[in-house]
Specification:
heterodimer; A: 115 residues; mainly beta; six-stranded mixed beta sheet; five-stranded antiparallel beta sheet; 11 strands; 0% helix; B: 116 residues; four-stranded antiparallel beta sheet
Chain lengths: 115, 116
Amino acid sequence: DQQVKQNSPSLSVQEGRISILNCDYTNSMFDYFLWYKKYPAEGPTFLISISSIKDKNEDGRFTVFLNKSAKHLSLHIVPSQPGDSAVYFCAASNAGGTSYGKLTFGQGTILTVHP
Amino acid sequence: GAGVSQSPRYKVAKRGQDVALRCDPISGHVSLFWYQQALGQGPEFLTYFQNEAQLDKSGLPSDRFFAERPEGSVSTLKIQRTQQEDSAVYLCASSPYAGRRGNTIYFGEGSWLTVV
């Protein structure tokens, strides 16, 4: 079963506008959530994270929102830039499961930012 | 380089052939993970090492998959009698911590395996 889901395979946005990437999860034991960015032929790189005790975390142009009751998180990129074009993965970890940061990933969303 | 290094970057194997994929983690990193990423999917956890100890191998899909990290640094993922469904990118990741620090997990570029 897919415990972390990204239901939008792709998203296309104009430069300067907001990009919103969504992620849903089913396992209520997940307590730490991360977004990774991946360029072609490279490994995923960490972008931003949020603990379940918070509902928002901001880092420059990137903000992650967590709605625990809905088991939903989103990544907002404002303003979007062409260099943001990449695959974005949502990931979650479970403190009640392992202590070493085992991650469960979504399927990814391909973001394309047009100049 | 200072990052996680994986080799080979690309491997084409005939069905039934054995393959070995190597991971050089960042020097001094305690934790090492292997993930499998099929085309169009997100990475899926295979196994975890803390130093030389394999603490979790729950994600290995079958007994054809074997991983080791004998001296607590370099790791090898071995796939015996490869099958077409093994075609994927195999990602190695390392972390300086034994505990959970999600933003300190560093991924390599991956080994792309195609089984024909």
